[in-house]
Amino acid sequence: MQKKDCFYLGKIVKKHSFKGEVVIKLDTDEPELYRNLESVFVDLGNNLIPFFITKSSLSKGVMLRVKFEDIDTEQDAEAILKSGIYLPISLLPKLTGNKFYYHEVIGFTVKDSTFGEVGSIININDSAAQPLFEIDRDGTEVFIPMIDDFIQKVDRENKTIEVTTPEGLIDLYLGI
C-alpha cells in the first residue's frame, strides 16, 4: 500500500502498558467510526506496514488505545512510537453536498460567480489558520479561502466547485 492510496488517521503518541499497548491520537471529527478496526497501516521508515489489531478502545474522545498483534513488550511499542497511522482511501465515508475531502477536489475547476472560471485546484494549503484552495490559472497561483460562505456548490460529476468570493480577491493575484 502506498501513501497516495491512503489517508492519515492519526499518530501513535504514547505507550500504554508494559504489554505493548499504545495510544493513537486520531485526527478525525468522528472517532467512533474507527473504534473497531481490524488493521491499520503504520508508517515505518517511509513504508506503510500492515498491523493487525487484537484489541482497541476509545478514550478521551480522540484517543484510541490499541493492542497490536506481535507487539508484546514495552520495547516493541517503543519501536513504533510517533509513527503515523493510515487507512486506505476506500474506507473513508462518502461525503455529499458541499462537504469534501481535500484529496478529492485536487484537479477540480473553480468557478467564481462574478469572475468566471478561475482555474484548477492543484493543492489544499491547510498550514494557515484558514485552509486555502491553491489554484493554477495559466501559471499564476490564486489562493481562495475555503470558507463555507464562499463555497456555493461542489459538483463531483463535472469536477467543479462554484464559489462566490469578495470583490477584487481574485484580481489581486492576477494584477488586474
Question: Secondary-structure map with pairings?
Answer:
Elements: E1 6-15, E2 22-26, E3 39-44, E4 47-59, E5 63-68, H1 74-80, E6 84-88, E7 109-112, E8 116-125, E9 132-137, E10 140-145, E11 151-155, E12 160-163, H2 169-174
What does it look like?
The chain is mostly beta strands. The protein has two domains: 3-91, Elongation Factor Tu (Ef-tu), domain 3; 102-174, SH3 type barrels (Roll), CATH 2.30.30. Helix content is 7%, strand content 45%. It is built from two helices and twelve strands. The protein has helices at residues 74-80, 169-174, and strands spanning 6-15, 22-26, 39-44, 47-59, 63-68, 84-88, 109-112, 116-125, 132-137, 140-145, 151-155, 160-163. Strands 1-2-5-4-3-6 form a six-stranded antiparallel β-barrel. A six-stranded mixed beta sheet has the order 10-9-8-7-12-11. Strand 3 and strand 4 (47-59) form a beta hairpin. The longest helix is centred in the middle third of the chain and has 7 residues, at 74-80. 20% of the residues are buried. The model has no long low-confidence stretch (mean pLDDT 92).
Number of separate strands:
12
Q: Spell out the CATH superfamily of the largest domain.
A: RimM
Mean pLDDT: 92
Number of helices: 2
Distance between the termini: 46 Å
Using the coordinates shown, work out and report the CATH topology of the largest domain.
Elongation Factor Tu (Ef-tu), domain 3
Biggest sheet overview: 6 strands, antiparallel, barrel
The domain tally reads: 2
Please tell me how large the radius of gyration is. Answer: 20 Å
By secondary-structure content and strand pairing, the structural class works out as: mainly beta
Spatial ordering of strands, largest sheet: 1-2-5-4-3-6
Low-confidence stretches: none
Give the fraction of residues assigned to helices. Answer: under 10%
Order of secondary-structure elements:
EEEEEHEEEEEEEH
CATH classification, class level of the largest domain: Mainly Beta
Strand content: over 45%
